[in-house]
Amino acid sequence: MCEYCYESAMLYFVASGQRHDIYSRFAYLEEADDLKTEIEQLEDPNNPEPLIDLAFCRLYDHYLTHGFDAGLFNTLQNKFGHEAVQSYLAKRQACHNDLFRTELSQIEFLNDETRWNRFMVDQERIYSHALELLNSYYDWWVLGIGKEKEKRKPNSIDESLLFADELITTGAEWDKFQALYPALFFALSYLTNHHRDSDIIRKIALTNLNDGADIWTKDLWLQRKAMITCVKRDGFSLIVDNLSHIRYELIYYVLLKVTINPAELILLKEAILAEQGDRLIGTMERGHLFELMDQLVE
Predict the structure, then answer these.
(1) CB-based contacts of 4: which residues, under 8 Å, 6+ apart?
(2) 171-194 vs 52-66: helix axis angle to the nearest 10?
(3) Helix (H, G, I), strand (E, B), or coil: what is residue 283?
(4) CB neighbour burial string for 192-226, b if at least 16 within 10 angstroms, e if fewer
(5) Which residues have CB under 8 Å from 94's CB, separation 6+?
(6) Which of 40, 131, 183, 276 could disulfide-link to 95, CB 3.0 to 4.6 Å?
(7) 295 vs 298: CA distance, rounded Å
């Protein structure tokens, strides 16, 4: 299943609340309203892929949005196990940002309210480091500036003909992205909660990846989170004014998450109908958008 197909599975879950199979659990961890219950219900959190990074990202977001919650951290640690949590936190040392490397690698940061509050006092320092990290991510991962690539290794003669000389992101760069990801999510969550006017949020929301997305759509998750923040701040005119740059999947997601009045819905639909030419981004057809719009009107 391709990464954009996984995003489709997430959209289905958000729209219907219905669950599929084990391979869609990433969507439940990203989008479930009751995170504690979602974590408690995980039967095998390390199959088919460790889900601990998604759980930690939701934990950071919960702390930043709703405040410190040691009970939620204890639920996470009980489910994944103390050893797995310690191993996970140790990987944060790979973050090149000094602040997030230090704080996000220490368990006391998440189970000691005094420690958390002491960290959050220095708002200017956190803001500065969050901007630095996200701007670096935007240039490197989203735009692909300086990203290391290599020739794709074909698995068959047909693939060698189909993907001749195609360059793909190296494994080392993917490892770097995975190691950085929780810090990236923390930084974006901090900005969306405390500095919604930051330009980097808008840039992440409106810029599609230069290369393929992470298989579990974690980079697309950042884009969705940024887009929701921008629409809540600027209204649906943001989408209408930048329609040619926005994937239909993103619009669909926003319609599921943000209330839109009938007048805005009409303007958005008219703008989509007026688009010229074929779309080259995303996999969703506009007919699916119109179906959702009709349901919202009803």
Answers:
(1) 213, 217, 220, 249, 282, 283
(2) 20
(3) coil
(4) beeeeebebbbbbbbeebeeebbebbbbbbbbbbb
(5) 101, 176, 179, 180
(6) 183
(7) 5
CB-based burial label for 101 (10 Å; 0-12, 13-18, 19+): middle
Let me know if 104 is exposed, middle or buried by CB neighbors in 10 A (0-12, 13-18, 19+): buried
Of 87, 120, 117, nearest to 189 by C-alpha is 120
Residue with tokens 């969050």: 130
Distance from C-alpha of 193 to C-alpha of 80, rounded to nearest angstrom: 28
For the record, the structure tokens of 166 come out as 């195609």
Task: Locate 215 and state its tokens.
Answer: 């298989």
The residue count of the chain comes to 298
Tokens of 278: 């074929």
pLDDT digits (tens, 9 = 90+) for 32-71: 899 999 999 888 877 656 788 899 999 999 999 999 999 9
Which pTM was predicted?
Answer: 0.91
Report CA-CA distances (Å) from 234 to 40, 197, 231, 297. Answer: 36, 10, 5, 22
